Amino acid sequence: MPKVTIDGHSIEVAEGTTILNAARQIGGDCVPPAMCYYSKLDVSGGKCRTCLVEVTKGSEKDPRPMPKLVASCSTPIMDGMEVGNKTSAKVLDARKGVVEFLLINHPLDCPVCDQAGECDLQNLAYEHGASGTRYEEDRRTFDKIDIGANIQLHMTRCILCYRCVNTADQLTEKRVHGVLNRGDASEIGTYIESSIDNEFSGNVIDVCPVGALTDRTARFKSRVWFLNPMNAHRNCDKCSGETVAWMFGDEIYRITGRKDQYGEVKEFICNTCRFDTKDLAKWTIEGPRHIERDSVIGQGHYELTPSDSTKELKK
Amino acid sequence: MGQKLLLDTVHIENIQTYEGYAKQGGYQAIAKVLKSMSPEEVLEEVKKSGLRGRGGAGFPTGMKWSFIAKPEGVPRYLLCNADESEPGTFKDRYLMEKNPHLLIEGMIVSSFALGCHTSYIYIRGEFMWILHILEKAIAEAYAKGWLGKNIKGSGYDLDLYVSPGAGAYICGEETALIESLEGKRGNPRIKPPFPAIKGLWQSPTVVNNVETLASVVPIINRGGEEYAKIGIGRSTGTKLISACGNVNKPGVYEIELGISVEEFLYSDEYCGGIKGGKRLKACVPGGSSVPILPHYLVTKTAAGEQRLMSYESLSDGGFATGSMLGSGGFIVFDEDQCVVRNTWNFTRFYHHESCGQCSPCREGTGWMEKVLHRIENGHGHMHDLDLLWDVQRKIEGNTICPLGDAAAWPVAAALRHFREEFEWHIKEPIKCLKGNYGLVNEPALAV
How many CB atoms lie within 10 A of CB B286? Predict the structure, then answer.
């Protein structure tokens, strides 16, 4: 099996694996951030350019470095490849640039945005962004659009990752989602609201890395960090029924898919589970969902009992 | 007087028709190929000729053809990129308008060499009248048996179609062209896979410029080695240059690669000097995407050598003191033109034409345009210049397709060579609205 070295960590992976997926197999700090790549989608990636990495050695056969930074989500590894991510100054500089580009037209309305606290762009900006802006002009704005009864599109916040477009392409036969216009005037086309009647259309909310697509049944109900995410399941004839119920006391505020540490859902869930089943009696609660330690949701940490915390401290 | 291989017959009145073209020795190349040559031999001739892509990048055509994958049972496609929309470039339009059969013959020969049985000319939507010219010419070629099944009894089949785009610059990028031809939104694809492996309808595909494919005809007629004798070094053959701007005789000229820039700019055979006897301020030698050269670097390289119209000489000195031959859009500025305004205008074009797929290009081009617009209108700050430099640097090389680079290079070059003019705009916000800065000074050579 071909061997690849990322930031000094070596791993053997299957032929055709991308650099990003090889890095995810290693885990830790050498994983590049990804705003548009989504492993559960057949087509995605290559667009946001946050996952750019430097290939310092092409392969064992052809050790020349690649002339430009490459998108790690769409570049397959070669045997003997050496990649710089966090250790490459060029990569960090370019990534800082990309974050700045993503933010110049972003409204930064985090205080009123439902995604705040579980937003990929927030995390990315926290890690790679600058503290101030150099952009003096007006930011682009759009009107909010309701896509059906349950989803709202707030195009102003969109970073055009195309994940929702690819999701819609994958889930439905008829194309109900696409991109209109060009350049920085591009917008996610919703076509006709009523045509999004697919039973899995709600997943575009889960795949959205920012707050551009939000759940209308849960909008403005609560900040995510005040809610307790619980693994829950029910018998569903459409999907696996395995979800996360975001609860406040005995009340379910919101249902989402189960996301891993890269913000990707394990499985797509159906609209019935997501929007229409908010009654606690219909769910079997399995227990608290593991939340990454650095997540803002983990601030009101309920998972550790006091004795657990002392154990953590002693380590 | 340099020899002409592509434009030698355009002055003949009925050259657009089959009869006119055939009378001037047309369709001899394909007749020769079908009679006595194998596809490998055609490829070998093209390799020997040293022909390089005429669309801008200058990649050797023979090498590009040899990269095409040849899996069993999968069709291959040849696409002609006639989506010429770069500001300053209008050579393909002239060639197709005046001599459509030359392109068609070139495509038949090239398709034969590549083993394609279906080929397409992807033409820019605004060139609708040229589409009609080409379709008429193709119909004539079908009628005379040069296209269709079993061409002239050789057993080789070829169908040729013309397909118009909707008028987007980005569709001149080869993978965006393929997407557009497939009927999708013209977004460039993420590479790899490259079109030579998976292109149109996931089949191996070669995309060539109009002029490149037309040049195949004289290569076959004369032989590759004979063709390679024209030109200088690795820049062989002739090249169409579309001269525009402040010159006495703007237009499309066919030059032998290797004539001096000075001759091209000032001789009566070509541009005929700067209009109104004014002084040269700057020149963009290869279409809007390539770096702009200040007056002291146009006819001479930084090393003091004469600059020639060739791929190597124009890029001598890299981007620090050189430029590129590009697609041959030769734009000349006299002393009364404003480089800041021109840079803003180019950037406005790239902002408008960015497809919006990848973030650096989508956001960066718009940002640069806004900053340049501010400077041009007397609202700039000194820190804007550093900002512009930083933004272009972060776009370049970080995008999916070369449009990002094409947007960044003109800004970088203008800042590099014309910084004092930019600073003047910021320091003199009233004057810059009324007048122009004039020539920039040649920097003193570093000792």
Answer: 26
Smallest CA–CA distance from A186 into chain B, residue: B356
B315: exposed, middle or buried (C-beta count within 10 Å: 0-12, 13-18, 19+)? buried
> Is the pTM for the entire model greater than 0.80?
yes
Residues 120-179 of B with CB under 8 A from A: 168, 170
B296/B440 Cα distance (integer angstroms): 9
**3-class SS string, B299-331:** CECCCCCECECCHHHHCCCHHHHCCCCCCCEEE
> Of the candidates B191, B162, B163, which has an alpha carbon nearest to the alpha carbon of residue B175?
B191
**Chain B residues near residue A58 by CB distance under 8 angstroms:** none
Same domain? B83 vs B191? yes
> How is residue B13 written in tokens?
């009145």
Residue whose pair of structure tokens reads 């995810």 in the numeric block? A24
Rounded Cα gap, residues B344 and B377, in angstroms: 11
Token pair 């994983």 is at which residue? A31
CB B397 within 8 A of CB B391: no
Parent domain of A287: 224-296
**Structural domain that includes position B424:** 339-434
Is residue B1 in some structural domain?
no
Q: pLDDT below 50 — which residues of chain A?
A: 192, 194, 303-307, 309, 315
From the CA of A243, how many Å to the nearest CA of chain B?
32
- Does the ipTM surpass 0.85? yes
Count of other CB atoms within 10 angstroms of residue A113: 19
Residue ending a domain, choose from B194, B229, B264:
B229
**Residue in A with minimal Cα distance to B396:** A68
- CA B29, CA B218: separation in Å to the nearest integer? 8
* Overall number of domains in chain A: 3
**Tokens 């909310």, located at residue:** A205
